[in-house]
Structure formats: structure tokens, C-alpha cells
Write a sequence for this structure.
DNA sequence: AAAGTTAAGGGTC
DNA sequence: GGACCCTTAACTT
């Protein structure tokens, strides 16, 4: 296992959070600023961003952000009663998935991209606990652009955490984070610029 | 079939 | 205006 652990992660400029029922690892500058700038511009321009509609409490509503689901052809993804088929890999993202897989010593074969135009775009409390992701999925979250707050709260314990996800940073959610915790990206009126988030996941082939 | 809901709207401070 | 709670009421698994 060559992934950063609590004992060696300082050498790799990684912050480790050992929480009840969850492990988080945060690399503030996984990508250099110029590399992150370039990737953000490229993705913003070249991807087919969609405003999906989902059903919630009986209402059909447009999600307050734009998204793309991408990866290996077998990676079907379902949430809030809507089925998503993956777009084929963008070459740069296939490469990035492979680099992150190697760095974290964990396979990633699909990615959900979310584009938040400004602080009005957001995502409410939820967990990435879809059955196709398995019991204790590892989720690697790369942030580009506008820094945004990221909140986590335990489902049962009075335990909450706020992180600031910065341009070029990588956050790994591991352990039983998705089973015992929820997370959100709250509205932030003062955030004026675009953020793009990439959450790399692994879905086993059938 | 009971439980859970990645949403918005309306209240308060 | 904005941050934070609470409610919503119907569909899904
Ligand atoms: Mn999520």
C-alpha cells in the first residue's frame, strides 16, 4: 500500500482526518495552479454540460448546477429515480483517472462532474451511497476554480466538519464515510466564480 | 411496503 | 439581502 497513511502523509503534503466512521485525506495542491487553470478551461469549454431534472418529494425540478457523467461503458448510474448512461471518456479525463488510481492505489473507472456557475449553485445533504458503488466506496474529489465550503455531518452523532475545497485540491472520502456521513456544498452568496468538481468512483463490471 | 428523498419555499433572526 | 431551519406530499426501491 503506497497511498498516504496517517504516518507518512506529511511528506506528501496530505492532511488526514480520522473521524468516527470515516477517513478523509486532503491534498491542497494535487494539481499545480497552472495545470488546474488549464484543465478547468478545457472542461468548461469541451464537455456537454447538462442540467438534469430529478424527482424530489413528487416534484420534478432542475438541479441547481450542471453535470456530466462519464466513464467506462458499463458504468450506469442511478439516483433520485433517474438513470444516467456514461459519456465516453474525454482523453484528458481518462488519463487523469488513471493517474489518480495510481497515486491512491485504488481503481477509478468513472467520474461525475459538477459545474457550479457561482455561489447560487449548490448541492444539498446527501451521501454517495448508490448500490452500484458498493459497501464502502472510495470517492476521489478534485476541485477546480472557485473555492467552496464543503460540509460533512454524521448521520447519528452530533459531529460536523467544514472544509474549504481549493483550486487543484484532491479530497479522498474513504472508510465508511458514505454509510455514516452526509455531505453538501452549501450556497455561498459571496462566491462569484465558477467551480468544477470531479468525483472519481469505481463501479465493478457485471 | 416502509423508508428515504443530491429540491424549493417560507418563516425567523 | 442572507444564513439557517422546517415543511413539503409523491415517487422510488
Ligand atoms: Mn456527493
Amino acid at each position: 500500500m503506497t497511498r498516504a497513511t496517517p504516518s507518512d502523509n506529511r511528506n506528501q503534503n496530505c492532511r488526514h482526518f480520522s473521524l468516527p466512521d470515516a477517513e478523509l485525506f486532503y491534498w491542497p495542491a494535487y494539481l499545480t495552479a497552472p495545470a488546474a487553470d488549464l484543465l478547468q478551461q478545457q472542461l468548461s469549454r469541451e464537455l456537454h454540460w447538462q442540467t438534469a431534472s430529478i424527482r424530489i418529494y413528487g416534484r420534478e425540478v432542475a438541479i441547481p448546477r450542471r453535470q456530466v457523467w462519464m466513464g467506462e461503458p458499463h458504468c450506469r448510474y442511478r439516483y433520485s429515480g433517474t438513470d444516467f448512461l456514461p459519456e465516453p471518456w474525454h482523453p484528458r479525463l481518462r488519463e487523469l483517472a488513471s493517474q489518480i488510481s495510481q497515486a491512491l492505489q485504488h481503481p477509478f473507472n468513472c467520474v461525475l462532474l459538477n459545474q457550479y456557475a457561482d455561489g447560487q449553485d449548490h448541492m444539498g445533504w446527501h451521501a454517495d451511497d448508490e448500490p452500484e458503488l458498493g459497501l464502502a466506496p472510495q470517492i476521489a474529489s478534485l476541485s477546480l476554480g472557485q473555492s467552496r465550503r464543503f460540509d460533512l455531518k454524521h448521520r447519528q452523532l452530533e459531529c460536523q466538519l467544514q472544509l474549504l475545497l481549493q483550486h487543484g485540491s484532491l479530497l479522498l472520502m474513504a472508510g465508511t464515510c458514505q454509510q455514516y456521513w452526509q455531505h453538501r456544498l452549501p450556497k455561498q452568496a459571496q462566491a462569484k466564480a465558477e467551480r468544477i468538481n470531479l468525483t472519481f468512483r469505481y463501479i465493478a463490471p457485471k
About this structure: Residues 54-57, 59-65, 79-81, 122-128, 182-185 of chain A lie near DNA strand B (CB under 10 Å from a C1'). The longest strand of chain A covers residues 110-116.
